Amino acid sequence: MTLLHAVAPDGCSVLRDSVSNRYLVITESGSSISDIMPAQYEYSKLVFSPISAFIGTIKMKLNKYMVVATSHEVTGSILGREIAKVTNFSILLVGVDHSVAARSLEESQYVSLLTQHLNNATLFFSIGNKYDLTNSLQRQLTSSSFSVDSRFWWNSFLSEEVNAVAGSEPFISHMIYGYFKSHSAIFDGISQPIEFALLTRRSIYRAGTRYFRRGVDDNGNVANFNETEQFFTTPNGKEIFSFLQTRGSVPVFWSEINNLKYKPNLVISSKSALDATQKHFDEQVQLYGDNYCVNLVNQSGYEKPVKDSYEAAVENLPPHLKAHVKYIYFDFHHECRKMRWDRVKLLFGHLNQLGYHRNNYFHYDVANKKTILTQSRVVRTNCMDCLDRTNVVQSTLGRWVLQGHFEDCGYINGNQPWETIDPQFNLFFQSFWADNADAVSCAYSGTGALKTDYTRTGKRTKAGALNDLSNSITRYYKNNYRDGARQDSYDLFLGNYRPYRDSIHSPFTDRRTAYTQLLPYFIGTSFIVLLAVLFFPKGSVFDFRNLLIVGLCCAYLLTLLRFVVSNGYQFVNWPKLNKLDYLKSVELVDKDGRLLGVKYAELDQFRSRSKKSK
């Protein structure tokens, strides 16, 4: 533990790096670094305690706060450099609390959002900053000069103030939001332990929740974009392999608008996405080389408009770019029907036909510091959410490539799959990929992934199907009634909304009409009255008076529920800090021009599609 922290009498924070013996002082007005204890605190007898990492500072509307990781768990290592997960944190007020006198409910709601995000996020950092989690292993070992990849530096906004101060490097942690774990084990037939690791890093751009961030933005950033890197290290760390895959939303302007029904309104924008799609693939090809885009959405029914839009966008790419974007359609649900998910392997043949082979990975001789092979192509996988089907395909590709690693090292021949040689090694391989699937899914949908019974065991089971049902119901509830605040927490943490700059009036005020706000209470009251008459009637429940009350309650409830169903947009928990791509609020006024409230509606450039499958 190299960082120590103390709170000064004036409420400011002092951090000390025990390696460089430098001090970082964070005050209301800014931050500074010195080689000696600042004079104003020299005789204050500050009490320092160890912390795991400095996450950053954030200014709300009235106050400034510092966020630190107070505990961590080491989840593995890469090339002997330990990687840790933040397990606890603390949000500390910097200076004087300016919200006490004002009794600011708004300020406390911002702090609550920050707390929510830190509770939900799976943040990882390199102990001692010895490994750059934001960059792939290949980039770190083959580039003469590389910098932190801003796409994956999750706490970059919170680090802005301190990062701008010269000499701040010992205090800055380049954290990622995602997953990391490594495991050392003996593989059957190899006398010494080998190491397997899996890492996923989530992009800060167009980040958010399942139904509030879909598709692409004008800058070419797509929702739910993740890099997943699989590592394999030979005994004694002599050689290391890494294999990189990506996932991301279909890069066109589209969304699914929550309406309280199980299937939201699928919306494709009438605005052309050609420029945005081109920007997306320009960057992807520049970063990864040829992109093999595996599209897993259904070819008919509800998902078909997304498939058609994607194919049209790829077809209309400029020729120089299209040559590097290989589109592969794989109808997952059709090919793997009746729980035959082993048929995902059919995808290998499609990849081979287009020039993507199993030896497309990074291979490095650690002992001699020599690059043996570089990865020059990437498989970019998507389904609707880039979660469940995508997880199955990515884990299968990881298994396929690991077979190549074992064969190249001479550990096995090509006649037998590695998982049949060492089933125990296969168990933790499957466990890693299933845990990774859950981490990515929780970040986007709010629940663990579906279909992880297959990822975890290699089989589709009835218990797994029941678990999927439970997760699907939970997703429905969270996506409709809870995700607005979760999206706000993303936007606050990533600096997409800055209260001190963007908040003139509180964004948390409910501006819907009084009737819309009160309607859920009317429903609840009617339901309670109905239950009271049914279970605690005066006299017989079949008395005329009781039957009349029951009938009136049922009729009233049905009327209210019909209104809710036909006006679903008005009862969804929408984000409050930033506007959505597809939604607008329309002011409602009475005949005298007085404002009654607002209602939510789709923007004009979006159009709803039928929600029923053909």
UniProtKB/TrEMBL annotation:
Keywords: Membrane, Transmembrane, Transmembrane helix. InterPro entries: SAC_dom. The chain crosses the membrane at residues 518-535, 547-565. The keyword Hydrolase does not apply. It comes from the Eukaryota. One of its GO terms (biological process) is phosphatidylinositol dephosphorylation. Residues 125-446 form the SAC domain. GO terms for cellular component: endoplasmic reticulum. One of its GO terms (molecular function) is phosphatidylinositol-4-phosphate phosphatase activity. This is SAC domain-containing protein. It comes from Scheffersomyces spartinae.
